[in-house]
Design a protein that fits this description.
signal; Molybdate transport system substrate-binding protein; metal-binding; 2 domains; D-Maltodextrin-Binding Protein, domain 2; AvModA-like_subst-bd; 5-stranded mixed beta sheet; ModA/WtpA
């Protein structure tokens, strides 16, 4: 049996430790609406680069509070553009790293097929008992939902039926479980591959609410982290953008 020479062994070990040194890991706080696409992107990112992104999902408002309390996140993928800007102004994040990774779409959705019409008239005429909306103080999609109701002049009529989710993930669960007949959720939660997965929906026109610009930013703790830098670049690349687009986001 052939054995490796000392020089060959040294070369193999050198290559191994070099690769290990180059690979890095970054903790990423991800807005709940971006859960499904980011899970796919993170898996492909690790496969393509060797770096690892450890993901946590939740409400952008809660992540902001956690970051202020010293949570060890390296990147924030927010559900808005104001929170990353605020973190940069407060000196907690690298402003030069900030960019819009997606523009979200708000949708009125029901698990029941043919229940939601193409113009959202069900808000006025439906016999629904509950409608799920994310907390507008914490979740940009919740704020957009309330702006839409205001624009339609339906706030007073709909408000008594509102079941409030802590974030857009919980809001979707209320609607998906049937506990709420309707829900204002992110299009990404009910769409995949360009198709509605189930139920019926009205994609809310962008003019009904402020744009849901979702910005990414590197936090100070990861300003020298190789994985953080690589992931921010990866999110701008063709592979990531194809995934993002397939879930109904714009850029």
């Amino acid at each position: 049996m052939n054995s490796l020479s000392p020089a060959s062994i040294a070369l193999v070990l050198s290559a191994f430790f070099c690769a290990s040194a180059q690979a890095d890991e970054v903790a990423v706080a991800v807005a709940a609406n971006f859960t499904a696409p980011m899970q796919k992107i993170a898996a492909q990112f690790e496969k393509d680069t060797g770096h690892k992104a450890t993901l946590s999902f939740g409400a952008t408002g809660k992540f902001y509070a956690q970051i202020n309390n010293g949570a060890p996140f390296g990147i924030l993928l927010a559900a808005d553009d104001t929170t990353p800007e605020k973190l940069a102004k407060e000196g907690k994040a690298v402003d030069a790293s900030r960019f819009t990774y997606a523009i979200g779409q708000l949708v009125l959705w029901s698990k029941q097929a043919n229940y939601v019409d193409g113009k959202g008239e069900v808000l006025k005429t439906g016999d629904y008992q509950h409608i799920a909306i994310a907390n507008p103080k914490l979740a940009p999609y919740g704020l957009a939902a309330m702006q839409t109701l205001d624009k339609l002049g339906l706030t007073a009529q709909v408000q008594p039926k509102v079941v409030q989710g802590e974030n857009i993930g919980q809001t979707y669960q209320f609607a998906a479980s049937g506990n709420a007949q309707l829900g204002f959720v992110a299009l990404s939660q009910v769409m995949e591959g360009g198709q509605l997965r189930e139920g019926s929906a009205w994609v809310v026109p962008e003019a009904m609410h402020e744009p849901i610009r979702q910005d990414a930013i590197v936090l100070n703790s990861a300003k020298d982290n190789a994985a953080a830098k690589a992931l921010m670049e990866y999110l701008k690349g063709d592979k990531a953008r194809a995934v993002i687009k397939s879930y109904g986001y714009a850029f």
